[in-house]
Predict the 3D structure of the following.
Amino acid sequence: MKKAFIAAAALVALPMAAQAQSLQPGGFYIGAEGGLNWILNNSFNTTIGVPAGTFTGSTNGSYNTGWLAGGMIGYDFLGPRVELEGVYRSNTGTLTYPGLGGASANGYINQFSVMANVLYDFNAGGMIVPYAGVGAGIAFLTAGDSGGSAGSTQFAYQGIVGLGWNIDSTFRVNLEGRYYGTTSPTYTYSSNLGGTPYTLAASIPNNNFSLMASVQLKFGDAPAAAPPPPPVVAPPSFMVFFDWDRSNLSAQALNTIKQAAGAYKTKGNARITATGHTDTSGPEAYNMALSLRRANTVKDALVREGVPATAIAVIGRGEAGLLVKTADGVREPQNRRVEIVIQ
């Protein structure tokens, strides 16, 4: 039972393996992507300077689900992939400042990152392709509230897991989840909240989770077509000709038979068919018998050349199978023959 199960599993896996080798080639690709972004840190330290003094404390941020969009260009090695990617993320929310008497403002964080990614496809070329990867690069961030904003440039990094669908040799669709983060930026800016001028310095850890979908266009060569089947090689054959109404062998016929015997011996384990023919002169029944006599004459000569009689089959076809088509009653030398075929 166990052996039968293994055999069945192998039969199922074979077409999948063949498909994995042929559905999509390697090569360059480009793509576009988009999705949702969640900022994971919603509380951070803030120093606020106002005319009445300086307050240091935590700021509570409630960021909404944001969006992202971007694109990539890459190269697929059928397994490993490398790509250069640019992605823009945007999240808005509400910021509450305990140091300003619980005042609140609309806040936002926008980020543009340029990343170099290294990924690996676990079923490269197949229809369904699980994959994982990592990336590193640079991020340009802008954060602020309704009163002001500041920018920061940071080192960025990400981890990627996803599932791809190779629609055909050109198009691929991906669905993936990412952890994306940067080194912690500090934003310092002057603003005005509720008519009160203030300065703000906030150190905001930047950790994100992104859910993304993408489509890719492959520029690799199409899978090579299967090679054509090898040409059918015709078995060696020889032709012996006869005079009209004769079955005896000429010197030329004996030389041809010697060549046929040599070909048989070279081939080794083989069979010989000697098929006799006549032209259309004479009665049909007589010609059938004459064609059989000619075939037997050739067989006897082959035996004398060392071919076992048991290896030779004799056939008489009479007027059937004319080499040169003629009307009835025509003496045609090329139709008076025995064909020797070695198989």
In short: The CA atoms of residues 27 and 220 lie 4 Å apart. Residues 237-342 form a domain with the 60s Ribosomal Protein L30; Chain: A; fold (CATH 3.30.1330.60).
